[in-house]
Amino acid sequence: MKKVAVVILNWNGKTLLEEFLPSVLQHSSREWVDVVVADNGSGDGSVAMLWEKFPAVQIIPLEKNYGFAEGYNQALAHIDAEYTVLLNSDVEVTAGWLDAPVALLDREPGVAGVQPKILARRNKKTFEYAGAAGGFMDRYGYPYCRGRVFDVIEEDRQHYDTPMDILWASGACLFIRTQVYKTEGGLDARFFAHQEEVDLCWRLRCRGYRLVCVPESVVYHVGGATLHAESPRKTFLNFRNNLLMLFKNLPEKDLAHVMHVRFWLDYIAAFKFLVTGQPQNALAVYKARKSFRQMKSSYAPVRKENLAKTTLSSIPEIMENSLLSAFYLEGKKTYADLHPQSPSRP
């Protein structure tokens, strides 16, 4: 059994694999590392290309497109490494990228997951939207990062280079204990894609595990390679999955209030889409809320299980106030503005 399995989930990403696999192989050449591609039923010749050009890569062929969440669940059923790295196919890694995260996992048994610093492949001086230097969330379910709050993306000035406990680690590059992943239920397959890693990490955090960002490790992520930023499908998944995540994980004392506030905030968001000429995105918000209502009852047993396994009465990585209020009314546009006492302050 190898210590680490770097697992890349692929669906019709032949071009991305050809571009980014070389860096993964170059910088993961250790006797204790396997590089694995789990193929989600691609029809673009990805598997044949891998056999021909990258014979060192192990392949897990899946019979259909399971999506991001269930695709990884299916893939990890074949993995027995101590640690698994969930790595997007559009990520360029750097020298030594495995060392600091693996060392932390070896040293700290209470840490379930680790994220490196994620910078933008298109502009390597800036953070990347999906994860940046570690993820947090406000009480109403709005995620943000060190280095990215809503659409404000900061330049990396090494001001977030302090290792730090976080609420969620980006699925673009997530180091996780394989057995913890399997024991605690993995990614929620019904999410299909988007916010499934936030849900998993929140679940782990509630159960007493820690998540940490280790900025000593650096990767570059293209981002947006699967769905366009303004895709109605992406809007639908983000809104629906965020509501499901809240329902699954919120403490009983907060559930009614948070869901009431989110009802109004979601329809304000839909109205904003409408008046800015994005009617399909506005409709996607409505459809997301409808889908959530339809799925809610089936998630009641999941919520009951999550609450029963919760060991933390409060989670310090969840901001008690509203991110929307802080951002739009108070002008707090960065993580350092939101958390002036944080050691990450420049």
Give the terminus-to-terminus CA distance. 42 Å
Per DSSP E runs of 2 or more residues, the count of β-strands stands at 14
Strand content: 15-25%
Structural class by helix and strand composition: alpha/beta
Structural features, described:
There is one protein chain. This protein is α/β, with parallel strands linked by helices and 346 residues long. Helix content is 40%, strand content 21%. It is built from twelve helices and 14 strands. It has helices at 14-27, 46-53, 67-76, 99-107, 178-183, 196-206, 232-249, 252-275, 279-296, 300-309, 323-329, 335-338; strands spanning 4-10, 33-40, 58-62, 83-87, 91-93, 111-120, 135-138, 143-145, 148-149, 152-153, 164-166, 173-177, 210-221, 318-319. The strands form three sheets. Strands 1, 2, 3, 4, 5, 6, 11, 12 and 13 form a nine-stranded mixed sheet that branches. A three-stranded mixed sheet has the order 8-7-14, with no helix packed on it. Helix 2 (46-53) links the parallel strand 2 (33-40) and strand 3 (58-62). It is globular, with a radius of gyration of 19 Å. The protein starts with a strand and ends in an 8-residue tail after the last helix.
